[in-house]
Design a protein that fits this description.
about 300 residues; alpha/beta; 5-stranded mixed β-sheet; 11 helices; 14 strands
Length: about 300
């Protein structure tokens, strides 16, 4: 059994959070999956996962190894693409999806630069805050914020994105400044929620002195468009939870101020999803490389 197989298995277990899910995705048994992880741990001399009968979570060594292992896998796939000499002649449409905030602020401004380098490619950018189905909608890749749930997809992590709770100065003047998550609830603050049909009641995951905790917030305003929530916050309608990069200009101008700073939101993962195909269209990989490099630079 090759070391590379063990690395590939580790990556899928890390991304899916489950030995059984990774085994199904790789079409191997749970026993083989577990054996590959054990072999990798023996080789490295560290534990990569904490295992219990009910849960599996990466150790600090696991988090660290994932970053390097992902780059190894990407490098191999890029090398394979160069071997078949296709990256020089990229052409055809590329179907890309992204959340509204990510798409408008991070992806769309960089598409023209990509097309200057690859003029025979056309980019079809679909922006929506709803969850997309790559296969059903014929997408090549999708940028997203959150955790991977679909084991039929592969993921490239881009960054952990800082988030903030914020409101307009007018709202704070009228309703008071909530100090923490408990104050959001006890003060019956108006919380502006991103929500889709069939979604569960909103619960904001905030960092507390005792660790992460979910707060069952409420409010009269809901939308499936994150920019609508920002507009409501700007007009004093309530408190919004947003990635900092989406509201950075409003915070800098004073149009919005941070609230509940004693319990800030946990960062959210930004990543790129693509289908699990052995022979991926090279332009998908090149587009991901192009965007990920520039997005990471923007967060530095």
């Amino acid at each position: 059994m090759s070391y590379f197989d063990n690395i590939r298995t580790f990556i899928r277990v890390y991304e899916l959070g489950s030995m059984s899910a990774a085994g199904r995705d790789l079409r191997i048994s749970s026993a083989v999956t577990s054996s590959r992880i054990s072999q990798l741990e023996d080789h490295l001399g560290v534990r990569l996962f904490q295992r219990t009968t009910r849960s599996l979570s990466p150790t600090e060594h696991g988090h660290s190894f994932y970053a390097g292992a992902s780059e190894i896998l990407i490098a191999v796939e890029k090398a394979e693409a160069h071997i078949v000499n296709v990256t020089e002649n990229l052409k055809g449409p590329l179907y890309v999806a992204a959340p509204l905030g990510v798409g408008r602020r991070l992806i769309a401004p960089r598409v023209p630069d990509f097309l200057k380098e690859y003029p025979d490619v056309s980019v079809r950018l679909r922006l929506s805050d709803r969850k997309v189905d790559l296969t059903a909608e014929g997408l090549d890749l999708a940028f997203f914020l959150g955790q991977l749930e679909d084991s039929n997809l592969r993921m490239r992590k881009i960054a952990d994105v800082e988030r903030v709770l914020c409101a307009s100065p007018d709202y704070v003047a009228r309703r008071g400044m909530p100090e923490d998550g408990d104050a959001l609830i006890s003060g019956q603050h108006e919380c502006l929620n991103l929500r889709f049909p069939g979604a569960q009641e909103p619960r904001w995951r905030l960092s507390t002195p005792n660790g992460p905790r979910r707060f069952a917030v409420s409010g009269h305003y809901e939308s499936d468009d994150g920019d609508v929530l920002t507009d409501w916050a700007l007009t004093g309608q309530g408190i919004v939870l947003k990635p900092r990069f989406e509201v950075a200009d409003h915070l800098a101008s004073g149009a919005l101020v941070t609230v509940a700073e004693a319990t800030p939101p946990e960062p959210i993962q930004m990543a790129c999803l693509f289908t699990h195909r052995r022979r991926q269209d090279p332009k998908t990989r090149i587009f991901m490389d192009f965007m990920i490099e520039r997005i990471r630079a923007a967060f530095d």
